[in-house]
Amino acid sequence: MKVGILGSGVVGQTLATGFIKYGHQVKIGTSNAGKLNNWLSNAGPNGSAASFADAASFGELIVLAVKGTAALNVLEKAGKENLKDKTVIDATNPIAELPPVNGVLQFFTNQNSSLMEELQSKYPKANFVKAFSCVGNAMMINPDFGGTKPTMFIAGNNDDSKNVVKEILDTFGWEVEDMGKAEAARAIEPLCILWCIPGFLQNRWTHAFKLLK
Ligand SMILES: NC(=O)c1ccc[n+]([C@@H]2O[C@H](COP(=O)([O-])OP(=O)(O)OC[C@H]3O[C@@H](n4cnc5c(N)ncnc54)[C@H](OP(=O)(O)O)[C@@H]3O)[C@@H](O)[C@H]2O)c1
């Protein structure tokens, strides 16, 4: 598959490396390609960098991995037509430009809304699927918890798109819990706040969530 990754940060680079590992072609979108020189030097022939618009146009599948406050701006640069009828894996979190309070991140959304719903309503022809938002980048590809598969919570309105994402998550070593439609992002996005607390308070960043049944 051709994957267009909107985001040149550690998440964009980590997921890009993961997709390449499993045989996909990846183009990372950025407004600052120089940031990716190091990544490009190790990516091999299936990895490249381009503008947000070119990466979105390239991708049959899109990944959105940008700063939450920049998500709308980046999607505008990517272009509506380049997102139409495509699955958009949304790894972003709506983290506000404010410091954590006793280790608790502050969001610019409230509990009865989510960033993904806002993006979905602005781009109704794209199929957003929330995924990868509630775990640190170091655990995104083939996390090793001594044989226990952690759970990735996903949500989105389009079942075909969710099936594509489920397959990818399975390949990347995750158990998937489909939490339903886009509104479920209101519950998934704040898991980022919970995930980060042990990090900020005790410098522990190597955990993931598991839904016991
Ligand atoms: N770090 C993690 O372990 C982790 C885990 C789960 C989820 N997340 C979420 O994943 C997303 C990406 O995180 P990250 O740590 O990889 O990097 P990040 O620093 O949050 O985002 C980097 C990307 O955001 C873009 N960006 C930043 N400010 C911008 C602005 N004002 N206008 C346009 N674009 C802007 C950058 O554009 P350029 O490419 O042009 O520089 C770059 O592509 C975030 O929403 C984060 O909350 C992070």
For this entry, give a set of tags:
213 residues; alpha/beta; binds NADP nicotinamide-adenine-dinucleotide phosphate
Q: Which stretches of 5+ consecutive residues score pLDDT under 50? A: none
- Taken from the alpha-carbon principal axes, the silhouette is globular
Largest sheet: 8 strands, mixed
Multimerization state? single chain
| Helix-strand pattern | EHEHEHEHHEHEEHEHH
Strand content: 15-25%
Strand order of the largest sheet: 3-2-1-4-5-6-7-8
Average pLDDT works out at: 98
Overall helicity: 25-40%
Number of strands: 8
Rg, please? 16 Å
Counting helices, strands and paired strands, the structural category is: alpha/beta
Number of helices: 9
From the N-terminal CA to the C-terminal CA, the straight-line distance is 34 Å
Ligand species: NADP nicotinamide-adenine-dinucleotide phosphate
Q: Layout of SSEs?
A:
Elements: E1 2-6, H1 10-21, E2 25-29, H2 37-43, E3 47-50, H3 52-58, E4 61-64, H4 71-78, H5 80-83, E5 87-90, H6 115-122, E6 127-130, E7 151-156, H7 159-171, E8 175-178, H8 185-188, H9 191-202
Parallel strand pairs: 1-2, 1-4, 2-3, 4-5, 5-6, 7-8
Antiparallel strand pairs: 6-7
Bound molecules: NADP nicotinamide-adenine-dinucleotide phosphate.
The site of NADP nicotinamide-adenine-dinucleotide phosphate has 25 residues, from helix 1 and helix 4.
